[in-house]
Design brief:
Blueprint: H1 43-54, H2 58-65, H3 70-81, E1 88-92, H4 98-104, E2 110-115, H5 118-132, H6 136-141, E3 142-146, E4 159-165, H7 174-184, E5 185-196, H8 202-224, H9 230-239, H10 244-254, E6 257-264, E7 269-275
Parallel strand pairs: 1-2, 1-4, 2-3, 4-5
Antiparallel strand pairs: 5-7, 6-7
Helix pairs in contact: 2-8, 3-4, 8-9
């Protein structure tokens, strides 16, 4: 990720709050801050402040602005992970727990949801507790931790599956995070990444760019009553992040084999899958 000029005047800190007494929120992103957002040294803390501000409206905006496709994308991630009975799963950047809970409904023996933002984890726990009232065993399989995908608090070879949905572009250093995913996976383990991309077919790409760049930031901000700049950041973070092919190349460079990508919903979203090779496997990339 390249770094260029930052604003010469002091930029808004992630800890600064809105002057609206009825809706105080951290101002995570201003227009000036977004000029080179992936290169900012304080990106991680700004992302944390942003997600803390929009946590309560996060699920609603996901459903509405994906046109109710986000859950189908998560089902594809679970299918691709090929969870076996007794597997242990780590869902990074778990947010409010949708993908974590989808994994918990497979044959996995344990699923850990990890997120950088405490407010997201709090909502995930509430959602899980509600489901556990009807399925106590599900609640026993799931636990949540606050943590950084770039510095995972687990021993080597701890998991059979690692996933991250719409979070890899939000970490400070994506390659460092992917190396951590590789480290904590057991040989033969699978990494599944869901991330937005720009569709390859020009008419679809133009429509998607207009929707994500103009429509969604306005309607999502209204729905969430957000003052953190989250819905300015989110579309720009997609357009300025590496594309899915480059992400696949990065996964291969880290050591993953059989890296495969699957465009979803006309290429708006891409599911990337990689395997950690077993010691006796040929490094087939």
């Amino acid at each position: 990720m390249d770094e260029s000029s930052l604003p010469t005047q002091p930029s808004t800190s992630p800890t600064d709050v809105s002057t609206d007494p009825l809706n105080p929120q951290p101002k995570a992103w201003t227009d000036a801050d977004l000029a080179d957002l992936h290169a900012r040294e304080d990106k991680a803390e700004r992302v944390r402040a942003m997600f803390a501000a929009i946590a309560r409206s996060y699920d609603l905006n996901n459903r509405v602005h994906s046109l109710w496709r986000d859950q189908a994308w998560r089902r594809e991630a679970v299918r691709a992970a090929a969870v076996q009975a007794g597997d242990e799963v780590l869902d990074c950047a778990c947010g409010t727990g949708d993908l974590t809970l989808a994994f918990a409904k497979t044959g996995a023996i344990a699923v850990i949801g990890l997120d950088f933002t405490t407010e997201m984890i709090d909502l995930a726990r509430v959602k899980t507790d509600r489901l556990a009232e009807h399925d106590p065993a599900l609640g026993q399989r799931v636990r949540y931790l606050q943590g950084d995908a770039q510095d995972l608090p687990f021993e080597e070879c701890s998991f059979d599956v690692v996933s991250i949905a719409f979070g890899i572009r939000n970490v400070q250093d994506p390659e460092r995070a992917i190396r951590e995913f590789f480290r904590v996976l057991r040989p033969g383990g699978r990494l599944v990444i869901l991330e937005f991309d720009r569709p390859g077919f020009a008419p679809v790409r133009w429509c998607n760019d207009f929707y994500c760049g103009w429509v969604m930031p306005r309607t999502a901000t209204l729905l969430s009553r957000d003052r953190s700049g989250a819905y300015k950041y989110l579309p720009r973070s997609v357009g300025s992040f590496m594309d899915s092919r480059s992400l696949g190349t990065l996964m291969g460079r880290v050591g993953f084999t059989r890296v495969a990508r699957k465009p979803l919903t006309l290429g708006v979203c891409v599911r990337s899958l990689g395997h950690k090779p077993a010691p006796d496997q040929t490094q087939d990339r």
